[in-house]
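Let's sit down with a protein and look at its sequence and fold side by side. Once you have written the record down, we can walk along the chain together.
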Amino acid sequence: MTATAAVEGRTREPELAGQTVVVIGGSAGIGLETARRARAEGADIIITGRDPERLSQAARTIEAARAAAFDASDMAALEEFFHQLGGPIDHVMVTAGGPYYATLAEMDFDEAHRHIDAHIWPMLGVARYAAPLMRAGGTLIFMGGTGPRHPAVGLSIAAADNAALTALTANLALEIAPVRVNLIAAGFVDTPLSASLLGDQLDERRSQLRHDLPIRRVVGPADVAALAVHLMTNTALTGAAYDIDGGQQLL
């Protein structure tokens, strides 16, 4: 047998074997795909979501060790979840909460406030309640975006959310070390959430991106999941935002 053949025939060890991964918002889209990939890498998976039926179906699909239905923006429920979990855990990813787009004139202040709460408070709550349960070297992973970095009409709340998440990532990485804190900043990702936001414009958007993006395809949940698992396994990474948008920012 040649050296090349020996390398090709070698079985790769799962990168997350013996570890526990919690995905907040793990019943669909990026969260579910991340849970699926982490499970394939040998991790025990715990997922949460707001819809009990959809969550139960997702848990069966990926053979999750546990599932809990609650709203991640409810701090009391979030605290109780981690209290009952007990630990130890290794990684927590938070995908809950979508963006809010509106011009100043059309903005519903109550709705905008709820969207800000849905991003900022879960990040702080997870940092407070999960970090004491985590093994050294584990990471908290949060989701942000790349689009709101470019000023445009209607992006005020999304841009403010994104700036806050980036700042919190860096500060929390110092405060709760040696637990690591990282942010994934995504462009357009082809998920059910994107479909609900774009409606009948979804196919046109997909076609435009396939033509314009340097990668000549649309970014999907599996792409983001691969980055998330890399952030879990590479213990040198903390306190930063990692872009994944297929080169969208270059256009």
Q: What stands out?
A: The domain at 15-243 is CATH 3.40.50.720 (Rossmann fold). The CA atoms of residues 145 and 185 lie 4 Å apart.
